[in-house]
Design a protein that fits this description.
By secondary structure, the chain is mostly helical. The chain folds into three domains: 3-69; 82-156, no CATH class; 266-423, Alpha Horseshoe (Leucine-rich Repeat Variant). The protein contains 25 helices and no strands. The chain has helices spanning 3-39, 45-69, 71-80, 88-100, 111-122, 127-135, 137-143, 145-156, 166-180, 190-199, 208-224, 227-243, 248-266, 268-279, 285-294, 297-301, 306-310, 318-324, 331-334, 340-350, 356-367, 372-379, 382-388, 390-403, 409-422. Helix 4 packs parallel to helix 6, helix 11 runs antiparallel to helix 12 and helix 13 (248-266) packs antiparallel against helix 14 (268-279). Residues 1-14, 67-75 and 300-316 have low confidence and may be disordered.
């Protein structure tokens, strides 16, 4: 049985019982108070009826609002009770909810058992489930930062014969969330700083893709925590890599990225965007990866004026650059387009009427890409896409469920689940 449906039925029953019990208790309390006041000759009998009715209606309204506000919390708390036997299908459903961002408050019971189950999965050979866990790390940090520590430690050293250190990179990307989460700039708690520092240490066999993600988190540190310390950490990184005899062209790529990120931070509209356009003509794959990973920064920098200032029809718009990188580029260059932040940017553009068609084309191209990782990573955001454009989300789901020439069973199951919930 679909875990979402069973959870919703559970909630409806619990909400109905809770509302009935609360109504009865409130009614009794108000009536007892009113009768006491009447016997004391403080109020008249008609006043009893008036104030009792008004009080019940007002309190029931508050109770209904409180119950609605608890909906997401109850949902996840209920589903977590099914995880004790490590049912991978149910865990996958829950991870999908967390990755999709459809939660406002999180409560897991028992939280220790939940994280213990995730940790066991991280130590297996289930590459796809480990990918999902690494993509859900920002939500897991919100649930319990300390319990997430062991999961991060294992994923930070994860290695697969086919996918190499992909989950290492995703884990480092998730650490950036701890720096950028809403709070005053340069007010990142010390415990969070220590958590991030531990994850940013270079590990044996770290590939250039992982190091690129590490430099991007250091850039966040530069602008949100301590610029001088970030510069020192970056220089220490390069020294460590040279001591380990890292390829010089890869070290040069990291220096190029460090400089590019600074331009994108200080002048994303002009200098940063022109630099992105210039570098997009490079024949160096590592350089192209750095550009592809950071096109979305020009979108996120000014979200309230995306149309007027960025997507103005010039050759260097966000959508034009993304389209360039979805052409005949190598898959390692295309994959960054499917990252969470890039999809968020595209979904934002999708909501602009005169950009809807072009943004929709890019999203469709990503979610139906021939590369398995691109399809799976992009489809992680299908719930958010459904909120913005239900027709496109269902079209993608139907394709992946029934028409995909290279189907992946887990992706087929998720697509059918989307169709079942929304059709």
């Amino acid at each position: 049985m679909d875990i979402r449906r069973s959870a919703n039925r559970f909630l409806r029953r619990k909400q109905g019982l809770a509302m009935e019990a609360l109504s009865f208790i409130l009614l009794m309390a108000i009536l007892v108070l009113a009768i006491a006041l009447y016997l004391a000759r403080v109020i008249r009998f008609l006043d009893i009826l008036y104030w009792a009715g008004a009080g019940i209606l007002a309190l029931l309204g508050l109770a209904a609002a409180a119950t609605r506000q608890r909906h997401q919390t109850l949902h996840i708390a209920f589903t977590s009770r099914h995880l004790l036997k490590a049912d991978v299908g149910k865990i996958d459903d829950l991870l999908g909810m967390l990755i999709g961002g459809r939660w406002h408050a999180i409560s897991l019971d028992p939280v220790e058992e939940f994280f213990r189950t995730l940790l066991e999965i991280c130590r297996t050979e289930n590459v796809e489930m480990k990918r999902r866990i690494s993509e859900a790390l920002p939500a897991l940090f919100e649930i319990d930062l300390e319990e997430s520590r062991d999961v991060v430690r294992v994923l930070r050293r994860d290695w697969d014969t086919k996918w190499s250190g992909d989950n290492r990179r995703r884990t480092i990307e998730a650490l950036g969330f701890l720096i950028t989460r809403p709070r005053p700039v340069r007010h990142v708690p010390r415990v969070v700083q220590a958590f991030v520092r531990e994850g940013l240490r270079v590990v044996e066999r770290d590939e250039v893709f992982t190091l690129v993600a590490l430099v991007e988190v250091l850039d966040l540190w530069r602008h949100r925590v301590n610029g001088r310390e970030a510069q020192s950490m970056f220089e220490g990184l390069l020294a460590t890599l040279r001591a380990r005899r890292q390829r010089e062209d890869e070290i040069a790529c990291l220096q190029l990225l460090w400089d590019l990120l600074d331009k994108l931070q200080h002048d994303p509209e002009r200098e940063g965007r022109l630099e992105l356009l210039r570098l997009s003509a490079s024949t160096n794959e590592n350089t192209l990866i750095c550009v592809a990973r950071n096109i979305r920064r020009t979108c996120n920098r000014y979200p309230e004026c995306v149309v007027e200032r960025i997507c103005d029809g010039s050759p260097s718009t966000v959508l034009e650059l993304m389209t360039i990188f979805l052409g005949d580029k190598p898959r390692n260059v295309r994959r960054p387009m499917a990252r969470e932040n890039s999809l968020e940017c595209l979904i934002l553009l999708l909501q602009q009427p005169h950009l809807r068609k072009r943004a929709g084309h890019v999203i469709w191209t990503l979610m139906t890409d021939a590369d398995d990782i691109i399809r799976m990573t992009a489809f992680d955001k299908v719930d958010r896409l459904y909120d913005a454009n239900p027709a496109l989300a269902l079209k993608v789901a139907r394709y992946l469920a029934y028409d995909d020439p290279h189907p992946i069973q887990r992706l087929v199951d998720r697509a059918k689940s989307v169709l079942g919930r929304n059709t």
